[in-house]
Amino acid sequence: MSKGDEESTVFAPRYDDKGLIPAIVTDAKDGAVVMLAYMNAEALRLTLETGEAHYWSRSRGELWRKGATSGDTQKVVDLRLDCDQDTVLVSVAMAGRGVACHTGRHSCFYRRVKPSSQGYELEII
Amino acid sequence: MSKGDEESTVFAPRYDDKGLIPAIVTDAKDGAVVMLAYMNAEALRLTLETGEAHYWSRSRGELWRKGATSGDTQKVVDLRLDCDQDTVLVSVAMAGRGVACHTGRHSCFYRRVKPSSQGYELEII
Known about the structure:
The structure is a homodimer. Chain A has one helix spanning 41-50, and strands at residues 21-27, 33-39, 54-57, 62-65, 74-81, 88-94, 111-116, 119-124. By secondary structure, chain A is mainly β. Chain A has one domain: Ubiquitin-like (UB roll) (Roll). In chain A, the strands form three sheets. Chain A has a four-stranded mixed β-sheet with strand order 2-1-6-5. Chain A has a two-stranded antiparallel ribbon with strand order 3-4. Chain A has a two-stranded antiparallel ribbon with strand order 7-8. In chain A, a hairpin with a 6-residue loop joins strand 5 and strand 6 (88-94). The first copy, chain A, is globular and about 50 Å long. At the A-B interface, strand 1, strand 2, strand 5, strand 7 and strand 8 of A face strand 1, strand 2, strand 5, strand 7 and strand 8 of B. Strand 5 (74-81) of chain A pairs antiparallel with strand 7 of chain B, so a sheet runs across the interface. Chains A, B: It is an enzyme of class 3 (hydrolase).
């Protein structure tokens, strides 16, 4: 990557060796990080074209419109790429129950790592 | 992954096939997402033990204490794992110049994707 790439205005997302790019998802309401998902080129294209967040499900091996079954859809408010165009940051308006996590929570990041007598443990918050 | 794993308090981070886990980094001051980096088990261990963010540099192929050369160190304020323990969310107090990006910017996410006559382009913000 040359220095100039970081100032480029050419849209050139960089996918990994599996054809995926990580997408950090934040709630447009307060900027809180609610999940990390992955997009392939088609998911990113559909996200940009429809304004509704689409991801690639690594576990199911399929394209996935967020909320297609749960109703917890995500409308794109802002979408950015980072300095080397290998990470997406998408700010979304959360419809449905307003939850991003399949556990029914607003955010997937509901467990804090803290020291324990055996090393580390998780605290549900 | 069984349903119970999502409620588990056992610290069991899941690394990918390269031994890495993505870490979303936010500025503790305002919660803004400033970068995405990767940790291997040692980087995560050092981050937890020292309270200073350590990452694995995929481009240099080496462990990296953030700010070791730039002075832009990151003190850990909060560290979480997501529902399936394959993503870290770390909130940091940013020392030095208060920048996370190697371009000298506060955040790596300084380019917005927007429609153009040719498809999409980036807008530096």
